[in-house]
Design goal:
By secondary structure, the protein is of the alpha+beta class. It has two domains: 35 residues; 78 residues, Creatinase/prolidase N-terminal domain (Creatine Amidinohydrolase, Chain A, domain 1), CATH 3.40.350.10. 43% of the residues lie in helices and 16% in strands. A hairpin with a 7-residue loop joins β3 and β4. It is globular, with a radius of gyration of 21 Å.
Length: 122
């Protein structure tokens, strides 16, 4: 079985995809984007951990490791991948966070957990 695909089809497909992405971006105002950013900054570490633990329960996870590095192991981590700094507030150059969750026995929808942060000695 052979599949024929021309270069113009690929370019057309890419152009329509980027058009739809830019159209969806334009439907969100700058004010709404700023509000989302402020909301994330206003949350306490405890609130962020509770939200993460709720998601962990939904996914049936007992522990979640949050590394410093990005998927490409870049020397300088882009802001979009600074997950450890977001969840813990620690903005140092090296470290790993671990968040655990445990359902309390006999209590539906109640949980407990721990959060750990390892850093180097610099």
């Amino acid at each position: 079985m052979t599949t024929e695909s021309s270069e113009s089809d690929t370019v057309t497909g890419s152009a329509s995809a980027s058009t739809s992405i830019s159209e969806s971006k334009s439907s969100i105002s700058d004010e709404e984007l700023q509000q989302v950013s402020l909301t994330a900054k206003e949350k306490t570490t405890g609130e962020k951990l509770n939200e993460l633990r709720t998601k962990m329960i939904n996914l049936n996870l007992d522990a979640y490791v949050i590394p410093t590095d990005d998927p490409h192991l870049s020397e300088y981590v882009p802001d979009a991948y600074k997950r450890r700094a977001y969840i813990s507030g620690f903005e140092g150059s090296a470290g790993i966070a671990l968040v655990t969750v445990e359902m309390l026995e006999g209590k539906e929808k109640e949980y407990d957990g721990d959060a750990y942060l390892w850093t180097d000695s610099r």
